[in-house]
Design brief:
Largest interface: A-B, 23 and 23 residues
Oligomer: homotetramer
Order of helices and strands of chain A: EHHEEEHEH
Strand order of the largest sheet of chain A: 1-3-4-5-2
Strand content of chain A: 25-35%
Distance between the termini of chain A: 17 Å
Structural class of chain A: alpha+beta
Helix content of chain A: 25-40%
Number of strands of chain A: 5
Number of helices of chain A: 4
Radius of gyration of chain A: 16 Å
C-alpha cells in the first residue's frame, strides 16, 4: 500500500520557451514523460526495459492545467504519482512547481507551473492491448497508489 | 449564431514521430495550435494580429484523447470549433482524423487520431487577465458556437 | 541533367518560436526535412515509400547559416536542391526566405532567413550503409543536380 | 589562458527519438544549447543573466556531424568548449558520446554520437550587433580557449 511520489528537478530549456517568454504549452507533456521515466527507474524497471520486455505504455488520454509562467533556466520540481486505472491501464498524475517557491514555503506547495495526469494503455509493440504482465502488476502493487473505488 | 468548423489538412512530420513509429504525444497540442491559428485567420484576425492589438490567449487547460496511430507523412484532417467559455475565456475543440479514412466514409468520420479541447484566458502581454476587447467579442458573436447554459 | 529546385511555402508555428521572438535555431533542421520530403514527393517516390522499399537516408552532416529573424505566422519559402555526393550518399541544399521579400523583389532573393545543407548516407533500417538501389539511382540521375568534379 | 571543457551528463528523452529508433537530427542543436548553458553557469554568469544584462548570443552558424545512434534513455556525455571568434562573436564546440563507452575506455573517447560547433553573434535584445561588453570579455579571457591565428 505504498504511496510514493517521485520527485524530479529540472531546468526549462531555451528551446522550450516561446515568444510570450514562458514555456510553450506542449512542453508540459514532454516534462510529464520525464516524471514517469524517473518514477519507473525508481521502480527498478526503467521504461526502456519495459519496452524491451514487450510492455508498452502509449498515452490514451492527457490533461494539463497551466498554473503559472516559467522562464528559460528556471529550476522546476515535478512530483509524480502512479495508480492503476482498471485492468489494462495506468494513470500518472503530476505537479510541477518552481523549486524556489517550494523551498521558500518550507515544503508547502506554491509557485505552481502546471498539474495534470495521463492515462496509458498496456500494449505490445504494435499497439495491441495486452494483459498486464505479472512483473508489472507486482511493481504496481508495491509502488502505485491504491485508490479504492475510483476510476 | 454561425457555427463553422474550420478544416485544416496537414502531414505528419518525421520530427513528430517517435521510436514507437507513431506521432509523439505532445505533438497533438502543437497541431491544435495550427487548428486555432487557421480558424483565427478565417475570422479575418490572425492570432499574430490579435497579439499585436494586445490580446493574448494563453492556455489555461488542455485535454487530449488519443484515438489511433499516425505515421510519418500521413495526411491528416483537423476540424476546429470555438466557443465562448465565461466572460474572459475561450474554448476550442478539435478532432483529427486520417484524410483517407474520412474520404472513404463519404464524410462520415473515422480513422480517428486524436480529439481534445483547450481553454484560453484573454490576457495582456504580461499574462494579466483583461476584459474581452469589443472587436474580439464581435468576432466571437459572429463565429463561435453559442452553447447556452453549458461549459 | 535536370536541375530543379523544389519550392515549399510554409508558416512559422508558435511552437517554433522562442523567447527572443524569432524561431528557435533547431527548427531550421526540421524545416529542411520538410523541404526534402516535398522534393522526394515531387520525384514520385515519397520518403515514406523509400523507407518502405528499404532505403533510409539518415543524416551524417548538417550545416545551417542563420540569415535573419522570422516571427510566428510569417510566410516563408524554401527552395531545395539535391545532388549526389559520392557513391553512397546524397546532399541536399536549402534556402529559406520571407515570401513577402521574395515577391517584392520580383523573384530576386532577399529577406533571407536561413541557408544550409545536409548530407545523408543510404542505409538499411538498422543504419548499415547499402549500395544505392537502382530505382533511387535512376531518380537521382533524372532529378538531382549533377555537379561534376565536386564533393 | 584556461582551457576548460565543461562536461554535462544527460539522458535521451522519448520525445527526442524518431521512428528510426534513434534521436531525431534537430535534437542535437537543442543538446548543444544545454552544453553552452551549463558552461556559462560554470562561468558564474548563466545565459539568462547575460540576457538580463543586455547581451544576447543568437546563432549565426551551426554545424553537426552525426557519428552514431542513441536510443531513448541512453546516458550521454557532452563536452563543450568556448573560444572567441573575431571581435563580436563566440564559437562553441561540442562532442557527445555514450557515457558507457567513455567509461569503458578509461577516459578515451568512443561511442560517438555527434560533434559540432556553433557560432554566435553578440547582440542586443533586438538582434543588433553590439561590442562585446567588458564583463563578458573578461570571462572569455579567463575561460575560453585561446586559439591564436585560427578561425
Amino acid at each position: 500500500m505504498a504511496c510514493q511520489a517521485c520527485r524530479l528537478t529540472f531546468r526549462v530549456r531555451y528551446s522550450e520557451t516561446d515568444q510570450l517568454g514562458t514555456f510553450y504549452n506542449s512542453r508540459v507533456l514532454e516534462w510529464f514523460e520525464l516524471g514517469r521515466s524517473e518514477m519507473m527507474r525508481d521502480w527498478g524497471v526503467p521504461y526502456a526495459e519495459m519496452e524491451h520486455r514487450g510492455a508498452f505504455l502509449p498515452l490514451i488520454e492527457a490533461h494539463v492545467v497551466y498554473r503559472g509562467r516559467a522562464s528559460y533556466d528556471d529550476l522546476l520540481v515535478m512530483s509524480t504519482l502512479a495508480e492503476r486505472a482498471g485492468k489494462a491501464s495506468l494513470r500518472f498524475s503530476y505537479e510541477i512547481v518552481h523549486a524556489e517557491a517550494e523551498a521558500a514555503k518550507g515544503g508547502q506547495k506554491g509557485g505552481g507551473v502546471a498539474t495534470g495526469w495521463t492515462v496509458h494503455a498496456i500494449t505490445d509493440g504494435g499497439g495491441r492491448p495486452i494483459r498486464c504482465p505479472t512483473w508489472l502488476g507486482e511493481i504496481l502493487d508495491q509502488h502505485a497508489t491504491q485508490t479504492e473505488g475510483t476510476q
